[in-house]
Inverse folding.
């Protein structure tokens, strides 16, 4: 039997191999409470952000959490916290916060007004 050489690529037929990839930048994370069933709200906000910032967002992650958490981060910075604000963001204000963090020169059109 041949010895395994970890310096050589592994060839697989009819399979997908997931390799560690560096996160794409800028990264946006939406952490939502699974106990509160806020996945749909988080997914809708993610879709809105990805549609508005299709060329600017490198990666968007939905991160399950508990305890009533709903936070939006760009990189390491928390730009929205439901615990801090006492409410969910309106999509218009969330787009403005994300824009200010990752694409300050971007015109948001009707979301700007």
């Amino acid at each position: 039997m041949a010895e395994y050489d970890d310096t050589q690529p592994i060839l697989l037929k009819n399979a997908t191999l997931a390799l560690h990839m560096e996160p794409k930048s800028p990264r946006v994370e939406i952490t939502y409470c699974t106990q509160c069933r806020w996945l749909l709200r988080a997914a809708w906000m993610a879709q809105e952000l990805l549609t508005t910032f299709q060329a600017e967002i490198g990666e968007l992650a939905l991160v399950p959490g508990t305890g009533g958490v709903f936070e939006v981060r760009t990189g390491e910075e928390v730009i929205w916290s439901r615990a801090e604000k006492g409410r969910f963001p309106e999509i218009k204000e969330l787009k403005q916060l994300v824009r200010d963090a990752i694409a300050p020169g971007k015109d948001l059109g009707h979301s700007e007004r």
The CA atoms of residues 100 and 106 lie 9 Å apart. Helices lie at 39-52, 82-85, 91-102. The first strand starts at residue 27 and ends at 33.
